Amino acid sequence: MTKIADALKSNEAKILTLWTERVLDTYVSSDFFKKSLDRFANPVGSNIREGLTQLFRLLVAGATSQNFVEPLDQIIRIRAVQEFTPAQAVAPIMDLKWVVRQVFSEDKDCRSLLTELLPFDGDVDRLTLHAFDLYMACREQLHKARIRELKSGTYILTDSACASALVQKNLQETNKSCAADKA
Amino acid sequence: MAVIKKDELAKSVVEEPTLMTGSMPEKDWMDIPAVFKPGNYAYPTKPEKLEYLNSQQGVSFPNARAWNPEDEDWKLPENWQEIIIKGLADRLKRFRSLKIFMDCCVRCGACADKCHFFLGTGDPKNMPVLRAELLRSIYRQEFTLAGKLLGKMAGGRKMTVGVLKEWFMYAYQCTECRRCSVFCPYGIDTAEITMMLRELLHLVGCGINWAMEPVSNSNRTGNHMGLTPQAFKGNVEFLCEDLENLTGVKVNPTFNRKGAEVLFITPSADVFAEPGIFTCMGYLLLFEAIGLDYTWSTYASEGGNFGLFTSNEMMKKLNAKMYAEAKRLGVKWILGGECGHMWRVIHQYMDTMNGPADFLEVPKSPMTGTVFDNATSTKMVHISEFTADLIKHGKIKLDKSRNAHVKATFHDSCNPARAMGMLEEPRYILNNVLEKWYEMPENTIREKTFCCGSGTALNTEEIMELRMRSGLPRANAVKHVYDKHAINTLACICAIDRATLSTLMDYWVPEVSVAGVSELVGNALVIEGENRQELTEGLRTLV
């Protein structure tokens, strides 16, 4: 894997640029998300950029899976609440395979490595599965938040009908039926 | 479903970006319809709530019916287009600001990337300029010569069901926080455009239940929750019992007491829901410590005014209740608790709607003698300015070490910050009750503060994803302070914030909980004759 790792490292800038661009292209207003580098003015763009950069460096360094959680979370937590299907939400991770192939095929020194990418693909696959776990954890968290808000009791108080209005309604209905009886 | 061929799938996964081409815009924005699906819209108003409100004096909420945004047919009244266009004409005549906002935008784009909904979704229709354009296009078509003659070429378009659906989608993807207005060189208040959109939608019976049920409850019992006077009083007394257990101080608030000097009004969530109740305990302790001659009202038992999110007539009616109660009780002035939009209503609309409140006196602190000239017309003082004034004059004793468990940052709630300039007072209080606290980055605080993402009655669980993505810019800044200083508390001065930021933090920065500034004051307060237990978590300590 060292040959691949070296090639990945030497192409880091190109790979990250292409990868980030393609991930941010999944947003309708991709231009703004790509251009603004202020992390507070552009939280989606900057978190995704940071997360992808981290993930790539960890992959190249052969880091253990625990290290991937934070940068993966940085990306997936956002996509889990945006209007993506589950597949679209985690697809950016898998897209790295395509990006690396694209960059390698344009670099004559790396072209020969295209057939040796299987172990790297395996790493990306594992990462994608992690991403899916995180996606599910985020969704679970959302559902729990929903339930907590429901259980907070506001409904018990607000969904009950007004007693005096009910009395009035009953009265009206009784009057109506009395009138109908008379008729 | 098509049969997936294994080799084709493998090829597409590694060589083609099929899943990645989610949402590139291929059409003009006017040609992209709003699509309603579970999770991206709040539930419509229950017909019985609307019928009740429509039966009330001074307001009009016609066309109550059961309808579903996901359905093709919204069961609109037959002449709905006429109703909308007439409604717009009427509002253009009555509100000069609306006419100006419709005409003066030069589409410079300064507002475009300032909206938290845009930043969280990337949906161009969440750019304030485009959200306003949803209405402006109809205005051009119907009310300008160029639009009448040239239609689409002049930026106009016909009022269709599609446009109405788009209005419903995006008028409820705006929290009227007004961050965009800070950046607009013409001072266009986009919140008021959203308010107009919502008013027009109400004319054809399209509103959301999370707004209208609290409005209906407030109109009926005086507060959002629909608490009866007995329940309201009971809840406050329950908090007093807790306070006595914690601090040994016996607090005896009064209710509906005629002749009190001050009427205190706060959001009902402070009386009823965590973490607001701890803020409420802070108020109760503070008033006891200084011996304030005040009363609660079980009729004006709500500071919040969801009328602001509904229609100007409804806002006026709910606001008037507070003043009617102040008059009935014969108080001198009103003290208001930590609420967001209540203060926008007071500060920006009350005076021309129901004011000036000449039957009240210009508020004067009985402890310090400070006259609150800023409230000369509305006669209503914010708890933070009142507390800051007490601290400034050395009228209360505070022990910062009692907040040793708190490492805080401060969220400027949109309305107090942007609608009334309440920037320094809460900071001054925090400086006096905490050893140290940390600011969030400059472009996310004060006038530029980011909204919690769930204001204007969007605090409902069916749109949880929407709330989480619109709250991302706020949470992202909190996360930054958390990473840097390991904070554990997000202080704020708004009841909606206390509810919504709690859920927001739980998703984005779970280590951080939310507290009202008055809770932190209550924690630090030293009261004569107290018999305080070891409160390692302040007023939240379970004893």
Number of strands of chain B: 10
Distance between the terminal alpha carbons of chain B, to the nearest Å? Answer: 60 Å
Q: Biggest interface: chains and residue counts?
A: A-B, 51 and 56 residues
Strand order of the largest sheet of chain B: 2-1-3-4
- How would you name the oligomeric state of the polypeptide chains in this document? heterodimer
**What is the average of the pLDDT values of chain B?**
93
Distance between the termini of chain A: 94 Å
Cα Rg of chain B? 25 Å
Strand content of chain B: 5-15%
Q: Return Rg of chain A in Å.
A: 27 Å
Number of domains of chain A: 1
Helix content of chain A: over 70%
User: Low-confidence segments of chain B, ≥5 residues, pLDDT <50?
Assistant: 21-25
Low-confidence stretches of chain A: 155-161
Q: What is the average per-residue confidence, as pLDDT of chain A, rounded to a whole number?
A: 89
| Structure summary, number of beta strands of chain A | 0
Helical region count of chain A? 9
Largest sheet of chain A: none
Main attributes of the structure:
heterodimer, A: 183 residues, elongated, B: 543 residues, mainly alpha, 2 domains, 4-stranded parallel sheet, 23 helices, 46% helix
Short description:
Chain A has 183 residues and is mainly α. Chain A has 9 helices and no strands.
Describe this structure in words.
Chain A has 9 helices and no strands. Chain A has 183 residues and is mainly alpha-helical. Chain A has one domain. At the A-B interface, helix 3, helix 4, helix 6, helix 7 and helix 8 of A face helix 1, helix 5, helix 11, helix 20 and helix 21 of B.
What secondary-structure arrangement, pairings included, does this model have?
The complex is a heterodimer of chains A (183) and B (543).
Chain A: H1 2-10, H2 12-24, H3 30-35, H4 43-61, H5 69-79, H6 86-106, H7 118-151, H8 154-158, H9 163-182
Helix pairs in contact in A: 2-4, 2-6, 4-5, 5-7, 6-7
Chain B: H1 6-15, H2 47-54, H3 80-94, H4 96-104, H5 116-121, H6 128-143, H7 145-150, H8 161-171, H9 179-183, H10 190-203, H11 209-221, H12 229-247, E1 262-265, H13 269-272, H14 276-290, E2 294-296, H15 312-329, E3 333-336, H16 341-353, E4 380-382, H17 383-392, E5 397-398, E6 408-410, H18 414-420, H19 424-433, E7 437-438, H20 464-470, H21 472-485, E8 489-492, H22 495-508, E9 513-516, H23 517-524, E10 525-526
Parallel strand pairs in B: 1-2, 1-3, 3-4, 6-7, 6-8, 8-9
Antiparallel strand pairs in B: 5-10
